[in-house]
Amino acid sequence: MRATRVELKLSALRHNLQMARRAAPHSRIMAAIKADGYGHGMVRVARALGAATDALAVASIGEAVALREAGIETPIALLEGFFHADELALIQQHRVTTVVHHHEQLAMLEQAPLNTPVQVWLKVDSGMHRLGFLPEHVQEAWARLGRIAGVKRLGFLTHLANADDRSDPATTRQLQAFAEATVGLEGLRSVANSAGVLGWPASHTEWARPGIMLYGVSPFVGRVGMQEGLEPVMTLRSELIAVNHLKRGFPVGYGGTWTCPEDMPVGVVAAGYGDGYPRHARTGTPVLVNGKRVPLIGRVSMDMLTVDLRSQPDARVGDPVVLWGDELPVEEVAECAGTIAYTLLCGITPRVARVEI
Ligand SMILES: Cc1ncc(COP(=O)(O)O)c(C=O)c1O
To answer: Which residue, 184, 218, 252, sits at the end of a domain?
Structure first.
């Protein structure tokens, strides 16, 4: 059987949640588990967090219903709200809290038969300019929500666009804009994502919404989870399926983009972009063979990638390989592939076995 698998260390999820609580001790936690729990399995993550989280955040009613059908009773919030009016029946049936970020959603709420109260967060665009009411429209939207009989207004939510850089003044401007837009209005506030939780105490309001840090990944540019006291949840493992002794001048892999500079051993690992390993990982991207770093060489193919084994002349077929996770930060691999850790975690394909440890 192919050895390629992801190991999911569920105790690390709980540890990382504790780190969020320690960093923002006065905030309740809404754990972001959208996109299949950032690739870790949404229901699995919800179960592992259990009552340790105060709420869960997802991106669509489909995700929320899947959680309810799996028996998850934790409060759930829809970060983008509903896309069509017919979702409001499911929102009521499954007791899901929704964001409202647009006039169209207000109109849908006004026209819908709301038999059970729908709990609503009003989303404020404090500067990211993706979703939310501009500050000058917040008072009016809040008042309009207040006139809908079936709506229970919870409070205000905004999202930070630049918090991953602790020195970027844009975050302070966003916090200021949010405070001004909601001044004098009664309700809860929710601002902090992972970067806010760990790096911006001024963003710690009644509710925080950490995502990536729960999976053990640093939200900050140029840093890794370990430096924030986080533990990786996911480790992508495989093994060597061939060790070839190649001659000086032999090209390796598609396009022959890498050529052996001397006679040398080259390892073939059973992991490729068909598993979610990034095709754009460049030559030199670290891979662990027998727990030691070796450089990836040549192009990543669908099912395999190749590594330079000159530092491990005794490596054998069947030797263990780690592509990221334990001892090899996914942030580092992402950087070598010109992307961010979020995409690698979310991108593991269905054929890869998931093993909980
Ligand atoms: C509205 C909202 N809140 C919170 C999060 C969690 O962010 P992070 O994973 O960076 O902590 C996200 C993720 O994209 C989001 O869209």
So the answer is: 218
